[in-house]
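Supplementary notes for students who missed Thursday's class. We covered one full example, reproduced here. Read the sequence, then the structure, then the short commentary at the end.
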Amino acid sequence: MTFEDLRVFLAVCQAGSLSSVARDLSCTQSAVSQHVKRLERETGVRLLERRPRGVVPTPEGRVLQTAAMEGIVGLDLALRRLGELARGESGSVRVTTGATTVRHFMSEAIVAFRELHPGASMEFRTVTSSRSCFDALADGGVDLAWVTIGSPVRGIEQRTVVELPWVLAVRADDPLARRSRIGTADLMGVRHIRPPESCSSRAQLDTAFSRLGVHPVSDNGIADWDTAVLLAELGVGHAVVPALPGWNPAGPSDGALRFLPVPDLPPLPVGWAVRSWDALPPLARAFADTVARHCPAGSGGG
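Structure (token representation):
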């Protein structure tokens, strides 16, 4: 049994296909299969079960998958730290998140963190969904992920930092702009500008709409909440969005747009996801704590 056997096995578990892993590794499917067979000989149990559309780990395979993932990620972190020490570096922090997060949640924290740790390097990877963030964590490619907090994910710990109330972004000349708050009835029949269905916060909003009996006419395909607000300002439609730090839900942003509270919708929890808080590198933990301290108080509690 080698580390390469375990790495290949983990890749197969995640991809659900030997052939796709073979393509990623530029080798044959037979070579990938040999890694798995070697592990099965060593453990004496069957680790993968074939399905019509690929493979899934058996119960025994899931045991090995969990243990191997913890061991390999820990080893990767150790090797990374040794490399940093050999190069005389003080460490690094690797974060994955959506496009709007750094601007709205992390800008002040980054400045404060850099003042305390001027020699640390920082890497930010932008993705389009919380699912992509979880995949990056599982692969060991990042330390921290800022996500919409949702259902439990195997091998991932989630921690809420803030809970964001929902607001309706409307033009100042819209009849709805004269209201102090938006009720369920106000959401009926208006054209909604919304992110793609793959967006985790969009999924939570849709669930809340369904419980309230709201079935909005929508324009889909918007990349992020900032774009939704811009299009609302341009008069394309209305946007129900989280009250992100930097927006003022109590009044106009620049005279052209109003953010009106929608109290019937439950707040959106957002925060950090990690593989293990106990195994988090000290610098990454320090950055996570710094972001939590600098999140605006008006955004909610977590």
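Commentary. The mean pLDDT is 83. The radius of gyration is 23 Å. If anything here is unclear, bring it to office hours.
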